[in-house]
Amino acid sequence: MPYSITVPLKTIRSLPEEAGNVYRALNALLYRWLKAAESPLADFVHDEAEPKPFTLSPLIADGEERYHFRVTLLEDEYGPFVSNGMEQERTLRIGTRILEIDGNADVEHRPYADIVEQAGTSPLIVLRFESPTSRRIGFPPPDKHHIDDPLPEPRTLFASYLKGWQAFSGQPIEPAEALLDWVEQFVAVSRFDIRSEVLKFETYSQIGCVGQVAYTVIRRDREDVQAIRLLNMLADYAWFCGTGHKTTQGMGQTRRLERWPHTH
Prior knowledge:
The protein is an alpha+beta fold. The protein is built from 7 helices and 13 strands. It has helices spanning 22-37, 39-47, 79-88, 112-117, 154-168, 176-186, 225-241, and strands at residues 3-14, 54-56, 60-63, 66-73, 91-94, 97-101, 106-109, 124-133, 135-138, 146-149, 187-200, 205-217, 254-257. Strands 1, 2, 3, 4, 5, 6 and 7 form a 7-stranded antiparallel sheet that branches. Strands 11-12-8-13 form a 4-stranded antiparallel sheet.
């Protein structure tokens, strides 16, 4: 059962100026929660788990000295540990600020079975990338280089969701490659309003796209109904699993929209 947990924060103290990275700080806070509740589990998630069973949003301002961030958990076994750890570790430091959890977290959970059963068959899927989103493309040896691709093209987008689904849902899609081949043939970007945006870490920057993209199924024969349903299911799951890489450090936060947003 995946969880979405929105954590409210407020600044309680300012300190002498010191560099600090919000994405690293939030990532470290989650591991402190796990360690406070179950130290071996924190070590396993940090050192061995792949893909990681969580995502984290950036820190989002809500007003003067008030913020929130969102953590999602892709397996329900982590929920009680995070809740327990959150009670024990209620502050974090980001640069010059000490922040404290301000009240109760807002928790949303949705069983994997419900995501499957409630998947629709809409031929139009609209996604909004709320934090910079990209995928990493690696080159084989001897180059060992990589680049970040910020363009959310259909196959790699749904491959990202499929990776999380196969790892955590307990209801794997088979054959997975056949679904991705179908996406490559019959799903197209039909509308987009995106821009590039940069996340700055201590020693490097990550480029990604933010905004919304519409994906349309261009063939809708009877034989495509199940694939369209799976596509809708994965798009619903994007809210929990995020898109692309570095989703544990603020990137790839994704929301499905019912329709293309109206502009005035």
